[in-house]
DNA sequence: CTGGTCCATTGGTCGTACCTAATCTACATC
DNA sequence: GATGTAGATTAGGTACGACCAATGGACCAG
């Protein structure tokens, strides 16, 4: 202090520091492991070291190690099994993990059904084009099976067949997405279809006419995909999506009139 | 046993049981909180009770409570702040959280650039149509600004302008997505654009010609969006995407020849 | 071959203690 | 009164240590 006191005016704080980030240890570990996994350092199915082993290696506490593993688990990069020969097994993220986060966005933002239909109208025709281009015979078989199931549920007026019909409907759409052999679009469509399904579940506008029309449309789109006619697939899918969306909107307006001024 | 023993042949295993789930407590808590958040029980920004308070309420250990909160944090449903007046604050998931998981899928599956371009070619024209329909004046201003910046970087042969050019390119595409006012498509395009950006960074095929063509295409698409001409926007965007993808593929083939037999 | 017992391994949960970060409060200083 | 500063207060972050629970394997009995 003696030398410093000689200075008449002491400058308060000449050095500027932006609030430098103090990362949490668990995040650091998670980031490190994530990077290695994505870089491909481990083959799929490889077991990461046991938690206690990681504790020894990283000199972190088990709490911290476990939080890091939990993060990776939520992100779909690792699957954790209990018991002997258990542990954290490396997994590559799949469409489901992506579909999940899309679903979260949809629910969390309370995205309206109209917006969902609009999105599907935007994406699925393109999906159909790719399906026409890349479909295999197995894809075609799935589509046909979905069509048959749908037709059965459309004609058979069984008890509470609405939910079944809608489920089968979703299956067909997912089959189209799968046939596109594009994992991104597939994941997106899975989330979208599921969300539309749960939004539609409570409405009764899917009457016999709509069902019949749906079956016809699906058949004709399937044929285009079978014939590898991309342009036709796009056109028909676009028509199908558009008329479906229009029907929904019409019903919504009617319901808004019947149940006024909320 | 006596009555059963009368039976001469005992059927081996007539009852089928699926492995019944034994949920982890942290998951149970996370599921419960997630459900409440998504249902809208808390307004955005609301603070969940402090960890120790949750411990008292749920009678779980703090470890468990913390893991549950960590799960929600990773899913983007909650933001955790330290210090006094800190805690877990409810957040609605945004496009970024979705974009993140899409990025994980892309990296984790090592999806090839060709597939990314194919996906963009499928989605972005539809994006452009919606942008033409819903764009506001503010959106238009963003697009114009992005165009100007891009033009500047295309003509000015500054040092290492490639990265800058690509970044500005991404900005424009994101501006288009934003103008569509569709959160799902926006999140999807953000992830896609970022991934394409990082995949393109190392290539030198973005020469002066490609840059000039890009600027021209963007201008004409912007004009269509400005005029609310959806069909033109789709057409031009599709052309743009297609020619870009073609250029990339051509370069890839050339590089494959130059660097043969890996 | 079937079933049972025991053991070793590994994740799951708990409790406690302490550290660190952010904020609030009260008081001192000018 | 405005302002700065020190300490108290409240939160999350980390560390251990102990024990529970699930799983798989080895071994043994029938």
Key attributes of the depicted protein:
11 helices; Four Helix Bundle (Hemerythrin (Met), subunit A); DNA-binding; Arc Repressor Mutant, subunit A; mainly alpha; 69% helix; two-stranded antiparallel ribbon; homodimer; 2 domains; 262 residues
What letter string, H or E per element, gives the SSE order of chain A? Answer: HHHHEEHHHHHHH
Shape of chain A: elongated
Number of domains of chain A: 2
Mean pLDDT of chain A: 87
Radius of gyration of chain A: 27 Å
Quaternary form: homodimer
Helix- and strand-based class of chain A? mainly alpha
- Poorly predicted runs of chain A are 1-15
Task: Find the CATH topology of the largest domain in chain A.
Answer: Four Helix Bundle (Hemerythrin (Met), subunit A)
Q: Which chains have the largest interface?
A: A-B, 49 and 47 residues
Strand order of the largest sheet of chain A: 1-2
Topology (SSEs and partners):
Two copies of one chain form a homodimer.
Chain A: H1 2-6, H2 25-39, H3 51-58, H4 62-74, E1 78-81, E2 87-90, H5 95-108, H6 113-134, H7 137-155, H8 161-179, H9 183-200, H10 208-226, H11 230-258
Antiparallel strand pairs in A: 1-2
Helix pairs in contact in A: 2-4, 5-9, 6-8, 6-9, 6-10, 6-11, 7-8, 7-10, 8-9, 10-11
The structure holds a DNA duplex (30 and 30 nucleotides).
Summarize this entry quickly.
Two copies of one chain form a homodimer. Chain A is mainly alpha-helical and 262 residues long. Chain A is 69% helix and 3% strand.
Can you characterise this structure?
The structure is a homodimer. Chain A folds into two domains: about 25-90, Arc Repressor Mutant, subunit A (Orthogonal Bundle); about 95-260, GntR ligand-binding domain-like (Four Helix Bundle (Hemerythrin (Met), subunit A)), CATH 1.20.120. Chain A has helices at about 1-5, 25-40, 50-60, 60-75, 95-110, 115-135, 135-155, 160-180, 185-200, 210-225, 230-260; strands at about 80, 85-90. In chain A, strands 1-2 form a two-stranded antiparallel ribbon. The termini of chain A are far apart. In chain A, about 70% of the residues lie in helices and about 5% in strands. The radius of gyration of chain A is 27 Å and the shape is elongated. Chain A contains eleven helices and two strands, in the order H-H-H-H-E-E-H-H-H-H-H-H-H. With about 260 residues, the first copy, chain A, is mainly α. At the A-B interface, helix 2, helix 4, helix 5, helix 6 and helix 9 of A face helix 4, helix 5, helix 6 and helix 9 of B. Chain A binds a DNA duplex (30 and 30 nucleotides) through helix 4.
